[in-house]
Amino acid sequence: MPETRTSEIGGETANIVESSTAAEPNQPQRYSPAEIEPKWQAVWDADKTLYAADAHDSGKPKYYCLEMLPYPSGALHIGHVRNYAIGDALARHMWMRGYNVLHPMGWDAFGLPAENAALKNGVPPREWTLSNIAAMRKQMQRMGYGYDWSTEVTTCLPDYYRWNQWFFLKMFEKGLAYRKKSKVNWCPECCTVLANEQVIGGRCWRHEDTVVELRDLTQWFLRITKYADELLDGLEKLEGWPEKVRTMQRNWIGRSEGAHVDFAVADGDAKITVFTTRVDTIFGATSVQLAPEHAVSKAFALEDDALRVQIEELLEQQKVARESDALGAIEKHGVFTGRFAVNPFNGERVPIWVANYILADYGTGAIMSVPAHDERDFEFAQKYGLPLRRVIAPNVDTTDLALPYTGEDEAVLIDSGEWTGENCLEAQEKMAAFAKVNGFGTPTVTYRLKDWGVSRQRYWGTPIPMVYCDKCSPEEPLPVAESELPILLPEQVDITQTNGSPLGRIPEFVNAKCPKCGGVARRETDTMDTFVDSSWYFYRYADAKNSAAPFDSDKANYWFPIDQYIGGVEHAILHLIYSRFWTKVMRDLGLVKNDEPAARLFTQGMVIKDGAKMSKSKGNVVSPDDMILRYGADATRMYALFAAPPDRDLEWQEEGVAGISRFLSKVYRLTTKFSGVARAKGSMTAPKDQALLRRLHQTIAKVTHDFDGRWHFNTSISSIMILVNEITANEAAMDAGEISPGAVAEVFRSLILLLAPFAPFFAAEMWEELGGEGVVFRTQWPAVNEELARDEEVEIPVQVNGKLVTVVKVPAGSDEAAVKAAALADEKVKARIEGKTVVKVIVVPGKLVNLVVK
RNA sequence: GCCCGGAUGGUGAAAUCGGCAGACACAGCGGACUUAAAAUUCGCAGAGAGCAAUCUCGUGGGGGUUCAAGUCCCCCUCCGGGCACCA
């Protein structure tokens, strides 16, 4: 993923005193991640098939576990560590449950930071990026993440981006990619255009201090709006996605049902089409309001110099407000144009105004103003003395009669000609239909979502595969032939100048042959938004080496949809709406069968430190390398899962990592101490076995359950700690041989299997120590023995009038009468109810007894 | 303004279906081991009162439903996030 305002971590490595967990000669049985982890890493790295998926006909159910790919900034930050620890635990667990797992990783490798680094250090973007990738891949391997590196995807390499170009050509062919001149967001810091989705609060997504400007430019757009309804409706079916993300996307798409109504301009040929969601209030319209940039405003301005000046002023106010993200708070100003428009419903002439709060790029850029029934229109009318006309009244008893009255569910039309008495909601439909029949309007739907602007005036991105030929096609850009792909990004490029696209300064790149007439043509010099790269990368994992197509459809249809997608909520709109769009386009091209890319989405919380998001400027950045050095990768990733449920923000406390390290040391000591007994196995008959085995099977049940959807690994790990505490409590008994070797073997083997998804290096080492066969995280996940897990006795709290009095022990599964009898027989209970009448006894078997007394 | 989350000890948190609030950890305190420290290990630990047994209060605030509410309903406060003169 492109980094969203995340500062890079890198370079400085703290001077750390020799780790306290390092091996000491006198105590060879001590846990030493510094020895164990590199040892197993070497073993795993050498085995290319270790994390590879099986063939499609393996007979196993498939499971596609995916974490969002990182931007190769040069170093993993702690947020990555958490994200990948969640995905890796899940992938390993699914392997152990017998699934055919696809668990890939790649690099979102195009983007501006590479160019900035080039400017700063003089290293070419490609070189900088590739060396960062190498460093981060190494870090990931050091963390012990189980990725199938044979499917690695690097988006800045031609074997990937040529398919961006291929998709672009397909979209151009289908009319989904087009060029238009429009107002676009320009970041002066990035020196490039940004998509609407990349403008956050009026500022650049990369530069939170930089106000985005608006410029009129001709740019390439992808027609995401064609899928607006499907993107919206599809959200209903995405039950495996967080409600928050679905809501954010709903808001972003911003569907609004209403009507277009044409108001003819009096004394002229022009007409003004307004968009309204309340056509039922049209008899109350007392003016028409235009955006300053509306064509009719401009036409009037041409005829009237004084008016032109005023309109320009309104436009300037709007621009200033927009750029400072204060559009919502703009002080309303308007000017009467001196002209009138005719309301087609009642033939009334209403004044035409131009106002600064009317936006040219939403709806039609024109509204009808109904001050009696709209807050904004009311405010504007009050300010300029425009008349109010009530045309809606509630049809229920209410005191809510003040104007503006905006109700519509329980309200009817009044003083509205033939529509008088109609219910508002019904009238909206009928009046829009009436307008259509009579040729002065139509029901319509408006969206907040706009088409995706993908042109970037930058070097380090996918070249757009289009050319311009002045001779044979002066108006229309021409697509290059598919056989010409990839259009390679040139290597030696001067990116130091900031005006215009860097590729435009390379004649060898710009000069192209016209695909139509064969003459000299100009190549498009803008590159694609990096969000194009991340919109479909996960399909490439299914068939990463394919040189004839982006991927083979059969392979994609086997793996898709992604079973579980895991990443940060900061991509809730950007990446996650683009990739849903891309999937629908690919489906319509016949490449895939799925409608949505991911069946389930999990958004993990942020990692914070000292109460704030980590950033270099705050000086609260935690380096994963430091953590590995001090506590090892296993303790670091296990802490990331233990400290908070994965969907919540996590406050990083180094003491906590130390605590996990202590826990692992304890397990290490116990396992090495009893591995001899465990290896011997043998009978399982000692009387003291039962309590230990009961705890074991309760733990297996708990951890297994946590993996089935809830993922509260903090509670999984805590239950494993409880098991280890139970083992410690039985240590003396085990020393004395009072626990049978068979039970010891089962407890330790299962314990290590339960830890395998969370601490893979540690588990591998301990598995070997126990004489376990094969690879630990391909070993069958331990099964719960319900019989062994069942408690013999349960403690039942006894309440009198809802207050806890005592706890009585009864055999598990006791019936109501037995529990009641036990409660009433208790001395404390007797004392408490003495001399009182027991009115009612509530017995919840296995849970509690409550005596209601008077 | 609308929408989505959240608020529980000194701290991170648990309580998954309305049934013992604070599991498991971190930090802290005390004991053992040690010449000493670290490490390890055993124990204490929501707040208040009491020598103690024990009692009272306690899940942001106020009301309600219920034998029983952190959990359900209504109202409110604060924090995080999204959308916003979007007609």
TrEMBL record:
Biased amino acid composition, Polar residues: 16-30
Subcellular location: Cytoplasm
Residue span(s) of domain Methionyl/Valyl/Leucyl/Isoleucyl-tRNA synthetase anticodon-binding: 689-815
Chain residues that bind ATP: 616
GO biological process entries: leucyl-tRNA aminoacylation
One term under GO cellular component: cytosol
Entry keyword Nucleotide-binding: yes
Keywords: Aminoacyl-tRNA synthetase, ATP-binding, Cytoplasm, Ligase, Nucleotide-binding, Protein biosynthesis
EC number of the protein: 6.1.1.4
Limits of the Leucyl-tRNA synthetase editing domain: 250-433
InterPro entries cross-referenced by the UniProt entry: aa-tRNA-synth_I_CS, aa-tRNA-synth_Ia, Leu-tRNA-ligase, Leu_tRNA-synth_edit, M/V/L/I-tRNA-synth_anticd-bd, Methionyl/Leucyl_tRNA_Synth, Rossmann-like_a/b/a_fold, tRNAsynth_Ia_anticodon-bd
GO MF term set: aminoacyl-tRNA deacylase activity; ATP binding; leucine-tRNA ligase activity
Recorded superkingdom: Bacteria
Record-linked Pfam families: Anticodon_1 (PF08264), tRNA-synt_1 (PF00133), tRNA-synt_1_2 (PF13603), tRNA-synt_1g (PF09334)
Positions of the Aminoacyl-tRNA synthetase class Ia domain: 449-652
Reaction catalyzed: tRNA(Leu) + L-leucine + ATP = L-leucyl-tRNA(Leu) + AMP + diphosphate
Secretion signal, residue range per the UniProt entry: none
Residues in Methionyl/Leucyl tRNA synthetase domain copies: 69-204
Residue window of motif 'KMSKS' region: 613-617
Disordered: region residues: 1-34
Motif ('HIGH' region): 70-80
PANTHER family membership: LEUCINE--TRNA LIGASE, MITOCHONDRIAL, LEUCYL-TRNA SYNTHETASE
Similarity remark: Belongs to the class-I aminoacyl-tRNA synthetase family.
Protein name: Leucine--tRNA ligase
Taxonomic source organism: Tunturiibacter gelidiferens
